[in-house]
Amino acid sequence: MNFMQFVMGWNSSQGRETPRLHLEICQWLDECWRANERRLLLLVFRNSGKSTLAALYCAWLLRGDPDLRILVLSADHALATKMTRNVRGVLERHPATIGLLDDRPECWAADQLTVRRRRVSRDPSLLARGIGGNVTGCRADVLVCDDVEVPNTADTEEKKRSLRERLRELSFVLVPDGLQLYIGTPHSYHSIYAETPRRELNESEPFLAGFRRLTLPLLRPTGEQRWKERFPDSVVDRLLAEAGPAKFRSQMQLLPTRPEDVRLDPDRLLPYDAPLSIVSVQGRDELRIAERRMVSAAAAWDPAYGRPERGDSSVVAAVFVDGEGHYWLHAIEYLVLGPETEAEVDDATRLCRAVVRFLARHHLPAITVETNGIGAFLPALLRHELRRAGVGATVIQRANAVPKERRILEAFDPLLAARRLHVHRSVLLTPFSDEMREWRPGRRCRDDGLDAVASCLLAEPVRLPPVAVRSSVPSWRGAARSFQAPTDFVP
């Protein structure tokens, strides 16, 4: 029984058909197995079922040779244990593998299993580990690297180098004539799956040089989907709009973009002049911009000491969202410490008071404060100043662990491509548009305004209940109110 027949038998037992995409992958794996190709790379778009096929492939290999030792590596331990469960489920239920799994308790654990085999071995039949796990002392006849490259393992230069070092160590685990199969999706331009060497990482040849590869992007060169039943035109359009062109090219078309080729084009912004207005509709306050009702808002403060000539700028920004999913960047303020008449007021307090005035002026219900760097002590001070001014806004603390370049690109790229980011003309008079035009990943440039706006765009819409403090911020977000109806009912 070849692998294609094995997969079709499994799908038939589960009451479903085998997609044409999976048949194409199965045929390729069968051809490579018969040709004794033992260094393989399979690149497939996201949500294509590649990990399901990886589990079936491991089960098929064990059916053909129960004495095999398979090591599966994933991005983290949780994914590794999930793979173990998937393989065990196939072995227990596939018509061709019934009775193969050893029922003894010691032959099964969350991240390993052992089948009934002829030889005695200290290594289990299948062992699953996260890429950071310890595999010293293990030996494997088959090594499956399933999605070892993800943002958490490759979003900084240090992580890219560390991932490569860990994968190179696997040559001491795999037997000389063993099978090595990489299955994944590129997550950066400096991907381990790149076809050409990445000179920035001192590569003289591609990391997986000599591997036979199969690359299956979602869209063929003709524009036709490879899996139209699962990804019709409407789904493709939605993915492109939500992810943005750069991420779609990388995750779905398997074509990561060079960092220096990324642009944030300010010409794709939609300028407007309309002010914020609070209107009363049937006894309820609504906040509107250009006659559109706003349903949520996000504000963010990326704090610094407000002297741009000495370093970073302290920037606060406000973004509103309407019911149709359009984003309205209404205000951004680069806070600068001017002369202060009250000598006892320190710089941090003056900055907090400027933020309080910003929140009150734009009817904002909450603000996110980045607590990296000097922001660690500011949330408590800002809450104090909000209470002092009678502004009932909530302070949300957030420490950003995601690299700034990635945050900015993921926030702006989809909205600019979909033409859904409106910007007030007053914002265009600030350094914000120059930051957009000059921004390049990997280069040192001004991006404090971009970072503050990105935090707004990536934030969950804030729809908080009214606060107890008497506030100057109107409740425009549709909070429920009590209502007593007259009735003639007599008990």
The percent range for strand residues is 15-25%
What would the principal axes of the Cα set say about the shape?
elongated
* CATH topology descriptor of the largest domain: Rossmann fold
Q: If you compute it from the alpha carbons, what radius of gyration comes out, rounded to the nearest whole angstrom?
A: 28 Å
The number of helical elements comes to 14
User: Which structural class do the helices and strands define?
Assistant: alpha/beta
**How would you classify the quaternary structure?**
single chain
The CATH architecture of the largest domain: 3-Layer(aba) Sandwich
Mean of pLDDT: 85
Would you kindly provide a written description of the structure presented here, covering whatever features stand out?
The chain is an alpha/beta fold and 491 residues long. The chain has 2 domains: 3-216, 3-Layer(aba) Sandwich (Rossmann fold), CATH 3.40.50; 266-458, 2-Layer Sandwich (Nucleotidyltransferase, domain 5), CATH 3.30.420.320. Helix content is 32%, strand content 21%. It is built from 14 helices and 17 strands. Strands 9, 10, 11, 12, 13, 14, 15, 16 and 17 form a 9-stranded mixed beta sheet that branches. Strands 3-4-5-2-6-7-1-8 form an 8-stranded mixed beta sheet, with helices on one face. β10 (276-281) and β11 form a beta hairpin. α3 (50-64) crosses α4 (77-93) and α7 crosses α11 (404-418). The model is unreliable at 462-471 and 479-487 (pLDDT under 50).
